[in-house]
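FORM 7B: Structural annotation worksheet

SECTION A. Query
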Amino acid sequence: MLNWTIPSLCIIVANLALIFRIIRQKLRLNRPIRWCQQ
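SECTION B. Predicted structure
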């Protein structure tokens, strides 16, 4: 059971990281913060 849960968890974590990165980029484009753009 661990043989398929661990790869699927890695895929879920990678997808969440990708979605979180896209959300941060959209928020950064909507509200430009100067200390992020040093």
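SECTION C. Observations
Residues 16 and 37 are 24 Å apart (CA to CA). DSSP finds one helix and no strands in the chain.

SECTION D. Sign-off
Analyst initials: ____
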